[in-house]
Write a structure and sequence with these properties.
Length: about 210
Amino acid sequence: TKSTRPQRLLKAVQKHSTRGDPQSVISAIDHFCRHREWAMNVGDEKGSILDSVVSELNPEKVLELGTYCGYSTVRIARLLPPGARLITLEFNADYAAIARQVIAWAGLEDKVQLVEGASGDWIPRMKEHFGIETFDFVFLDHWKDRYLPDTKLMEDCGLLRKGTVLLADNVICPGVPDYLEYVRNSLSYKSCYFKSHLEYTKAEDGLEKSVFLG
Ligand SMILES: Nc1ncnc2c1ncn2CCCCCNC(=O)c1cc(-c2ccc(F)cc2)cc(O)c1O
Ligand SMILES: [Mg+2]
């Protein structure tokens, strides 16, 4: 039977990168997506913005919503200090199976916990199931119509603290208008837009960075 795009992406990682070398995994995925098959990773241009936000923050507790093949998981985890933890939620079991192998190939499995399931189901269980008090950094990259409800859910579950940073992918393409309106107008957030491009294309896209003010 025909392979899937995530399966072909994993093969490209195993063929063109070095096990235990996260940077080579990132480069192999970017090369595959630019020259073979487009895939919905945050990509190298927005990925550099993601890197700078993470490096500046040095977060201990990170939540990623939407793992896909683990590209942004690897980008974030490779920058985390020893002892820091990244929990990443993936709804699609096939994506999760590939992401586990990409994360393991990069040698980052000790920093990452991949959880299969819907964000709406797992966010309320973060405290009791993972012993998480609050998150320092949240990367939103899952269903675009879940950004706003899940942000409100994280607020209600007390998972955000004064200074928690939310970074949202795709705020222009595919777009998250309700989420943008909320974080840009709410007195509980200080928000700013990083203009960029849709991964591997010339189309406009960008990241919205929103600091929770408590
Ligand atoms: N834990 C959870 N809970 C709920 N849903 C969950 C989940 N975990 C996963 N999902 C389900 C997310 C499915 C992937 C979400 N990402 C996207 O849909 C996405 C689409 C584009 C795109 C842009 C232009 C185009 F022409 C076509 C596609 C680009 C991107 O960077 C994207 O991130
Ligand atoms: Mg995205």
